[in-house]
Amino acid sequence: MNHFLHTVCAAFALLLCLEAGAQSQFMTSTSTRTQPQGEFSVFSSITKYLAAGDEVALSSWFADNLDVTVLSTSRNCSKKQAREILRSFFASNTPRSFQVSHRASEANKKYLIGLLNAGGELFQVTIYATSTGQETYRIQQLSISRQTAAF
Predict the structure, then answer these.
(1) CA-CA distance, 78 to 55, in Å (whole number)?
(2) CA distance 145 to 23
(3) Which residue stretches of the chain have pLDDT < 50?
(4) Closest CA to 127 of 144, 111, 151, 103
(5) Residue 130, φ and ψ in degrees, nearest 5
(6) Is 112 exposed, middle or buried (0-12, 13-18, 19+ CB in 10 A)?
(7) DSSP string, the chain
(8) Alpha-carbon distance 60 to 62, whole Å?
């Protein structure tokens, strides 16, 4: 849990630094139909699967073990366990859309923060993915929390 919180804080700090010093590093999307190109193309499929609530397809991007936080419940789990956690979440909160707010990258790491409209509520989704080599990325951390204020 502490490692996850430190990583999320580091991701936010990275986002703020990049925004202040290199605005071109960020891309903002108003819908999942406008997908990133180039260095952020890894998120094209991931955002599509989030918007559709397709935990099976989304889990193909999971690392063998990953940190998952859904509505304040955190755990390090296997790919299969994470898929079941998301299946349960999507069953209770049917996704309607997903909007990307921020993307950032550093070496072999990619970060994404977005807003999921699901079940009549808004949820902030944060994803941290790392490269496994040869341009292949795997989700190491995924967090879904209720959106309480605009960001």
Answers:
(1) 14
(2) 26
(3) 1-37, 151
(4) 111
(5) -125, 155
(6) buried
(7) -HHHHHHHHHHHHHHHHHHHH-GGG----SSTTS---GGGTHHHHHHHHHHHT-HHHHHTTEEEEEEEEETTEEEEEEHHHHHHHHHHHHHHS-EEEEEEEEEEEETTEEEEEEEEEETTEEEEEEEEEEEEETTEEEEEEEEEEE--S--
(8) 6
pTM attached to this predicted model: 0.71
Residue tagged 């499929």 (tokens): 45
CA distance 105 to 40: 8
- What single letter denotes the amino acid at residue 21? G
Nearest Cα to 87, choosing from 52, 115, 61? 52
Tell me the two tokens of residue 136. 């292949």
